[in-house]
Specification:
The complex is a heterodimer of chains A (about 375) and B (about 300). By secondary structure, chain A is mainly α. Chain A has 2 domains: about 230 residues, no CATH class; about 120 residues, abc type-2 transporter like fold, CATH 3.40.1710.10. Helices cover about 65% and strands about 5% of the residues of chain A. Chain A has a 4-stranded mixed sheet, with helices on both faces. In chain A, helix 3 links the parallel strand 1 and strand 2. In chain A, helix 2 runs parallel beside helix 9, helix 7 packs antiparallel against helix 9 and helix 9 crosses helix 10. Chain A is elongated, with a radius of gyration of 29 Å. Chain B is an alpha/beta fold. Chain B has 2 domains: about 220 residues, Rossmann fold (3-Layer(aba) Sandwich); about 80 residues, Alpha-Beta Plaits. The longest helix of chain B has 16 residues. The chains are: A mainly alpha (about 375), B alpha/beta (about 300). At the A-B interface, helix 1 and helix 8 of A face helix 2 and helix 3 of B.
């Protein structure tokens, strides 16, 4: 058995080594994806183009504006003269946020009234608009707090002096939420381990299905099928090289993520490799299954894409599964990416141990065994 | 002939694809050590038959035996005892000549002590000794086919199946290829070969003619020529061949009239004299230059057998 597996393995390795395009898919593409997504896959929004229309032109209004400027989130790059101009900037997409401070800003504030300031946000992209409006609320909240505390202190000081008020302790509740595992809430830390899961899935699934279908296309599989080789020997010999490539990609991607993007790695490498091994059972098993469904490499590539797109959407990579309709949540239980995402994020960011992750690894293993059995059964040493 | 000496036996074999019958109820036997040819036009069912014998396709109905094994239930056993080479070159082009040989001797589990010897034998037989390090994709088709043949023989199988092994190969390489086939047959290997080249069919010890999925005739090339042509064939050379053809085609006594180049071939039933026709032509004003009996070629036999069939 091992002799034949060894020879298929050797043959496959020679073919991979001599195929430039293959080497690109294996080594360059994952790195490229990682770097691109590492820089692009971030929900944090900085340098928001902002315009300020300040009719008040007072010390207070300038204070408010500088609060925006110093937050580091907003770049004030336009100072329009009129409301019309402000709207125009927004229309042209030159700014995402327009702030308008009224003439009577200080006057009203001194009267102790609530002072409205108008903030226009470009809501075309509802996600970023939501994030931006969150930032603005935070800023205004802290500005309000500062003003009212100033006022209170002034009043207290006056009251104490005049003897009208007894000193009281002010009960102050402060929200001190702390984000564990990712204290700065960097979305890149959250996303990059997920990118590893995506890269592994796409690469191994596509390589496996294409390598088998390619032999169908050029007819070499027929010559193999008239030899006494067993289906399992053929499949193992063909699949082991791609599993190895998967592991190489893990090392590659993890190194770049940790050394270049400074993603924390708190868990154990052994556990990572173990769960990657289980995950690869599913991705390679599905690739194998697709190869039994297709006659040409294009078909197998299309099948991979038709699988990968919904798999990403239903995995919790971008959208939390808990928010999805119940039915779709059930559907996502069949998605290997769902489990592996929890595993890699856990290992990278939380340093989770097997004790915590076994209930993710187990279903992953079950899916893997099922698809492997299914596709091996479909993989016949017959044609037609 | 006792049953023991048949190495391949097929009985009422049928294969259908979505209602289309590719192989229609064929029955034949192949003797141990002979070169058995399957002759027929493209799409006649040659490849389908050979694939069923090699265990690549399951028969729809009927039985078959290759060596000691049943083609429907023991195809994996059959695969250990046969060599197969398809019409399409199917070794790995990215691998070198030697790597391909090593690969297949690994797959066939050639014994370690024999590996080197078998490899050298293949290289020598295929005349590839000085090209062992070359990428297979760079070789000319004739060489590729010889290498494929060598790889199919690494495990010394008693039966060799060749599916149109020489299609697309130049005449000199084709001749070499057949010399190799003969040498295996001399050493006791049974060779089952399909072809649509009539000249190649002449090289076979016995032939089966297959047409539209049906086995039309079986026999030695000589037998086929004799069986098929139940009369005499005459070649006529005259000054107005087209008019002569027109005229002769109307004559009910003649079984067949066909144009062969500028000459006309007549097929007369046995016992029918040819001289009356010569006179009739003269009366029509057509000058007969030459009229003589010809020995039918395999092509004549093939054409006439197929005509009978359809």
């Amino acid at each position: 058995m091992w002799e034949r597996i060894k020879h298929i393995f050797l043959k496959e390795s020679i073919q991979i080594r001599r195929d430039r395009r293959m080497l690109m898919i294996i080594f360059v593409a994952p790195l490229l994806q990682l770097v691109l997504l590492g820089y692009a896959a971030t929900m944090d929004i900085n340098r928001i183009p902002t315009a300020v229309l300040d009719f008040s032109k007072t010390q207070e209004s300038r204070e408010l504006i500088s609060l925006f400027r110093n937050s580091g989130r907003f770049t004030i790059n336009h100072i329009p003269e009129s409301q019309k101009e402000l709207v125009e900037l927004l229309d042209q997409g030159k700014i995402w946020v327009g702030i308008e401070i009224e003439n009577d800003f200080v006057k009203e504030m001194k009267k102790g009234k609530t002072v409205p300031i108008q903030i226009l946000i470009d809501g075309t992209n509802s996600n970023t608009a939501g994030v931006v409006s969150g930032y603005i609320n935070q800023l205004l909240f802290s500005y309000n707090k500062k003003i009212s505390q100033d006022k209170l202190q002034k009043k207290l000081a006056q009251g104490l002096l005049s003897g009208q008020v007894q000193p009281v302790k002010i009960l102050n509740l402060e929200n001190q939420a702390r984000a564990w595992y990712n204290p700065e809430l960097k979305s890149r830390d959250y996303n990059l381990p997920g990118v590893l899961a995506l890269i592994l899935m796409i690469t191994t699934m596509m390589l496996t299905s294409m390598a088998i279908v390619r032999e169908k296309e050029i007819g070499t599989i027929e010559q193999l099928m008239v030899t006494p080789i067993k289906t399992t020997e053929l499949i193992l010999g063909k699949v082991i090289p791609f599993a190895l490539i998967g592991f190489i990609d893990v090392v590659l991607v993890t190194s770049v993520a940790v050394l270049w993007f400074k993603i924390p790695f708190r868990g154990s490498f052994f556990l990572l490799f173990l769960s990657v091994g289980v995950y690869l059972l599913t991705t390679i098993g599905i690739g194998l299954f697709f190869s039994t469904l297709s006659r040409t490499q294009q078909q197998s590539m299309m099948l991979t894409f038709f699988f990968v797109m919904p798999a990403i959407i239903l995995s919790g990579f971008m959208f939390p599964i808990a928010n999805m309709p119940r039915l779709i949540q059930y559907l996502s239980f069949a998605n290997p990416l769902r489990y592996f995402l929890v595993i890699v994020r856990g290992i990278f960011l939380k340093g989770s141990s097997f004790r915590v992750l076994w209930d993710q690894i187990l279903p992953l293993g079950i899916i893997g065994v099922i698809v492997l059995i299914l596709s091996t059964a479909r993989f016949k040493k017959k044609i037609g | 002939m006792d049953k023991e000496s048949f190495i391949v036996e097929v009985e009422n074999l049928v294969r259908k694809f979505d209602g289309f019958t590719a192989v229609d109820n064929i029955t034949f036997q192949v003797r141990k050590g002979e070169v058995f040819g399957f002759l027929g036009p493209n799409g006649a069912g040659k490849t389908t038959t050979i694939k069923m014998l090699c265990g690549l396709l399951s028969p729809t109905s009927g039985r078959g035996r290759v060596g000691d094994y049943d083609i429907s239930t023991q195809s994996e056993k059959i695969k250990e005892n046969i060599g197969y080479m398809s019409q399409k070159f199917s070794l790995y082009e990215e691998l070198t000549v030697e790597e391909n040989i090593d690969f297949y001797s690994g797959i066939y589990r050639v014994k370690k002590v024999l590996k080197k010897e078998r490899k050298e034998w293949v290289l020598k037989m295929a005349d590839l000794e000085d090209k062992r390090g070359r990428k297979t994709g760079e070789l000319a088709l004739g060489w590729k086919q010889r290498l494929a043949l060598g790889c199919a023989l690494l495990h010394n199988p008693p039966i060799l199946f060749l599916d149109e092994p020489t299609s697309g190969v130049d005449p000199v390489s084709r001749r070499n290829f057949w010399d190799m086939i003969y040498s295996f047959s001399d050493k006791g290997t049974t060779v089952f070969v399909t072809t649509h080249y009539l000249d190649e069919a002449e090289y076979c010890h016995r032939l089966g003619l297959i047409f539209k999925g049906k086995l039309v005739q079986i026999g030695t090339p000589e037998e086929l020529k004799g069986k098929s042509v139940s009369g005499s064939i005459w070649e006529l050379e005259c000054d107005k061949p087209i008019e002569a053809l027109d005229f002769l085609q109307k004559d009910k006594r003649i079984m067949e009239v066909s144009l062969f180049g500028i000459n006309i071939h007549l097929l007369l039933p046995s016992g029918e004299e040819v001289t009356p026709f010569s006179h009739l032509l003269k009366e029509k004003g057509i000058e007969v230059i030459r009229l003589h009996k010809v020995i039918p070629s395999l092509e004549d036999a093939f054409v006439s057998l197929i005509r009978k069939e359809s």
